[in-house]
Amino acid sequence: MKVIKFIFVLIMILNFIVTPSFQESNKAEASSSAFKIAVLPDTQNLASKHPEIFRAQTQWIAENSKEQNIKFVVHEGDITNNNNTSQWEVAYDAMQTLDEVVPYTVLPGNHDIGTGGSANTRDTTLYNTYFPVSNFSGTETFGGVYSEEPDKYDNNYHTFNAGGTDWLVLSLEFGPRDPVLDWANEVVSSHPNHRVIVVTHSYMFSDETRHNTGHAWNAHNYGVASEIGGVNDGEEMWQKFVKLHPNISMVLSGHVLNDGQGRRVSVGDYGNKVYQMLSNYQMQANGGNGFIRLLDIDPEAGTIKATSYSPYLDEYKTDWQNEFQYTNVELGAPNSDVKKPRYLFSNDFSEEKNRADDGLMKDWTIVDEGTIDAPSKWSVAEGEVVQSSNIYGPNVPAVDNRKGTFAYYDKHSAFNWGDYTFSATLNATDNDGIGLMFRYQDPDNYYKLELDNQRKFSKLFKVVDGKETTLAHMAEPGYIPGTKFELEIKVSGNQIQVFRDGIDIFGEPIIDNSHSKGTVALYSWGNQSNYFDDVLVKDVINSSHLLEDDFSKDNQRINDGPMNDWTIVDEGTIEAPSKWSVVRGEVVQSSNIYGPNVPAFDNRKGTFAYYDKSGSFSWKDYSFSSTIRSTDNDGIGLMFRYQDPDNYYKLELDNEQNFYKLFKVVDGIETTLSHLAKPGYTQGANFELEVKVIGNQIQAFQDGINIFGKPIVDHSHSKGTIALYAWGNPNSYFDDVLVKREHRLNR
Fold it and tell me: DSSP label at 45?
């Protein structure tokens, strides 16, 4: 045993020596679109007792803003501790270091308002003396303040561009009033093409939930709650504001003590994930030792990496709460045309959902497979599903073929659910098995995701005709006892992805063809303190559409009229201009426009119509299909990952010249990527043309048949919108345009 321990320690030492630091590896992996936002949590004790540390924070940001590519700085409130002149002098001295170096904003916390920072009123006289509107209104990023208080900087917003995306930072007062949330809704709604970061003093709590009734330090417990407009805590902000907008991506907050850390990923009404993070260090030595939160945002990689750094100590915190990464994050320009997804099932087990406190689970069937410490004890208590029995089998050491208890959703239609995402908030104060089951048909056929803290694993299983097989295994503690976390499963076709708090557990999709449909279940093994909440099942197909247009009146198209949301580009000069229109629910291009000459096979100049919504230029991995017809016999096709007239991909079919061709155009230079010598289509016949572009792989299909036989690999363009194309073809018809989001297999 001693030898084994020695070898283990030696391996760990070697691993430490050869593994680069977290910060260095982050820097090396970042794409050209990556940038940082610096977050200053509660500085109240720095302003009152350690001004030199406060100054060290902002001095480091100013001196390193270019090297670190810090594009914006936010303060989460509680700038001071006692709302007095001496502390505001310290705060002003520290923050003004950033003036004309990097844009920033501030907001008032509870210690910044009222008598002595007591938040007995919303008096922000000193706050606005040292940080008046006039200090910010002349900056490039300034957007505005709460319209009913034009001379106060208590509620404000700024905009900037970084990583190819337009961003809006909205800073809100402590426990924002109802009229302030009304204004916030208007601001976000009027900026549909901006990704929004909401910053407010109190929102998340340290138990990984939003600040809510019964939590300490709730805004409702302060004097300001009795003033006109009242207050809103984190959960109320979510319900009244945050979840209502498809373009809100993050919420940042401080205020809460305990360990001062918490985070949660929630899904808004439009299917968008909102990353909510609490960071507060004030209760630690020296008022927090100057730790700041750095968010490394990489739109191209789809990641948000969080680190916690102290310029005063020149060190990072490396525990799981202070160093983490979200993957598969939508960070490009938001889709302003997004529609609310179709929810197959949603339940927070509240009384409003016809759940009785301390009652039974309606619409769920309990199955006990374990025989030791049976039976199970499932119930609904205080708005959560609770399983409080230690039921298990066959024995304590078991890590496979375990028999516990589960509750499956028993509505008949649920057994026909095919492609969906299934998420829930879980918590276990015990340390044994807990998880989710999906595509469940019966006790002998299903998939199961199980996490175990004691035995240190996260496992994905399939059960087929009663036989269990492990599909994926990660050897690490599956969760932290007593800490809430979100599990999400995405199952589409034969691909399964699993996320814990937004992080892909197994790193890539798991491929399996065993089960194509089925309901969902909550699972427990040897775990007598299980809690499940916020169960959500969402239709993957409906939620993945980036664009769907059949050019009918229902889609606000005018028959025999122009194409809304599309821009026409004529490159050909012979028989120009083009003639694009919508006629009887189809797009028609009726001009013979072309160039440079009739025999041309390459470098042809025709006409195209590209979809011009700004969010579409950030589309990356997608399938693009359209029903196409030509009664002429010349060039017709689709363009994709279009950025401008000099940068795009193009799939062109020609009947007369007998070809299918895939081109890339980079800085105006055209290159053929693939060529098939046969008539591209039959005149007068409808056909479906589809392009799938995922990462660096391109596939093209005609009526479901792979045109070139295998994926074409090219790295030239990573994102862009789509276009309809015609060359020398006065009878080109396009209909049923559909763009669907696709997921990379290697992400």
Answer: H
Output the pTM of the full model: 0.63
Report the amino acid identity of residue 199. V
Angstrom distance (rounded) from CA 176 to CA 224 = 10
Rg (CA), the chain: 29
- Cα 271 to Cα 540: distance, rounded to the nearest angstrom: 10
Contact indicator for 580, 589 with CB cutoff of 8 Å: yes
Give the CATH class of 35-340: alpha beta
Per the structure block, which two tokens stand in for 2? 């001693």
> Taking the domains of the chain in order of start, what are their residue ranges?
35-340, 345-539, 545-741
Residue 27 near residue 21 (C-beta atoms within 8 A): no
What token pair was written down for 185? Answer: 């809704």
**Under 8 Å between Cβ of 698 and 692:** yes
CATH architecture of 345-539: Sandwich (2.60)
Find the helix packing angle between 85-95 and 51-68, rounded to 10°: 20
User: Do the strands 635-644 and 647-654 form a parallel or antiparallel pair, or are they unpaired?
Assistant: antiparallel
Look up tokens 């798991």; give the residue: 510
* Beta-carbon count within 10 A of 655 CB: 19
Tens-place pLDDT, residues 254-309: 999 999 999 888 888 888 889 999 999 999 999 999 999 999 999 988 899 999 99
Q: Pairing between strand 35-40 and 70-75?
A: parallel
pLDDT in tens, 678-726: 999 999 888 889 999 999 999 999 987 899 998 999 999 999 999 999 9
Q: Give the residue, 740 or 290, on which the prediction is more confident.
A: 290
CA-CA distance, 22 to 32, in Å (whole number)? 19
Contact 637, 621 (CB under 8 A): no
Task: State how far the Cα of 587 lies from the Cα of 688, in Å rounded to an integer.
Answer: 15
Asked if 345-539 and 545-741 have one fold, the answer is: yes
CA 649 to centroid of chain Cα atoms: 27
Q: What is the Cα–Cα distance from 67 to 27, expressed in whole angstroms?
A: 11
Rounded distance, CA 595 to CA 590, Å? 16
627 CB-contact burial (10 Å; exposed 0-12 / middle 13-18 / buried 19+): middle
Backbone angles phi, psi at 238, to 5 degrees: -60, -50
Rounded distance between C-alpha atoms, residue 287 and residue 76, angstroms: 15
| Distance between CA atoms of residues 627 and 721, nearest Å | 18
| Overall size of the chain counted in residues | 747
Q: Does domain 545-741 have CATH number 3.40.50.10860?
A: no
